[in-house]
Every structure is written in structure tokens, then in C-alpha cells.
Model the fold of this input.
Amino acid sequence: PVFPSDSWSLHFSFNLLKPYISRDDTDFYILDNPVKKEWVFKVPYIAPSQWKGALRSAMMQELVARLNARQIDKDKFVKEFAEERLRLYRLFGNEKDGTSDFLNRFLARHLMGEMPEGEQGREDWKKGLEAKIKEVEVEFESVLREKGYRKGEIEGFQGSLHFYPTYFDRIGLEVINPHDRETGAGKNPIYFECVPADTEGTFALLYVPL
Done:
């Protein structure tokens, strides 16, 4: 296929350092903890949404840690945070799974400063924090509309990164056997289906700047 200019893809193979455990969506299975499987061929896999969520979370945490570690004035902090947040939005699309709440709260706490001493001061600070979170949310919403990421009542925005599933060709079993504190004996082993260590998988993503 022909992709737009400046598109690129990343593709590499890897081997698991330890067993991979995930949770399947099936209602009926021989074990209570089956590994997640592709719904047609029933092979264990990592869904594109899992890769996307993991990478978004890692980049978000890195952004927060990096800005927290830097000694910069408040205006510059707010500007850099807005630029980085928009970059994440362009890459991953609209914010889901608490991402928006986390980032709004992070910026609001920074703008509010440290919680004061005293019960009344703390109560006033908490009320001010909730108001500031709402203010940050409204401001970011206006930026998204100004940049064209939101139009009308449509909130969906896909983002430029497109992830592909990772399939595995092996299934193993892990056992957890909780021990009684008094006797030291395990009575009720818990079985987890897994992808064994050293199983090979492939990671792939596509970037399309549209």
C-alpha cells in the first residue's frame, strides 16, 4: 500500500523474559484465569489496544516525572505541559481510561501549590483544587477545538499511531499456592494460564501523520 508522506513503521521481534499473564474475556473456560486469546483462532495474543494503553501510560508518566524534576517557572511549566499533552493527543487520540482526569489533576495540583497547614486551610485548598481541575479541563477542551481536534459534538479522535496485535504460539500454566500463616501448608492452588518465558512475539506499529 502507498502511505502519505512522512509515514513510517516500526517492527521488531522479542522474547519474553518471564511468563506473560493476561485476562481473557470468555465467560466459560476450564480455568478461572485464562490467558487472553484472539477470538477466531484462539491463540494467545496482546491486543492493539493493550499496546496502545501501555505506551500511552508510559509516556504520560515520563512527562509528569520529567516536568516535576525540572525547576522552571509556572508559566513555562504550563506552556510545556500543554505542548506535550497535545503531542500525546496527536499520537494516541482522545484521552481515555482516566487519562484526562489524571493530567487535569496533575496540572491543577501544580498550579495550587502545596497544601497548607491547618484543617480549615486544607479544606479550602481541596475545594480550590476541584475548581482548578474543572478550569484546566475547560481550557484544554477549548484548545482542542481551536486546533481542530474536536468539532461539534464529536469527541472521537483516532491519533496518528496505529498498533498491531502480537501473537504467540505457546500456552503454559503458572500456579500460585497461598500458604496458611499458622501451618505453612498450601491448600487451594490457583492456576493461571500464561505464555511461557522465552516465547517469541512481534511488535509492530504504523505512524501516519494525518
Summary: Helices lie at 48-69, 74-92, 99-112, 119-147. Residues 119-147 form the longest helix (29 residues). The mean pLDDT is 87. The beta strands are 8-15, 45-46, 161-163, 166-167, 172-176, 190-194, 200-207.
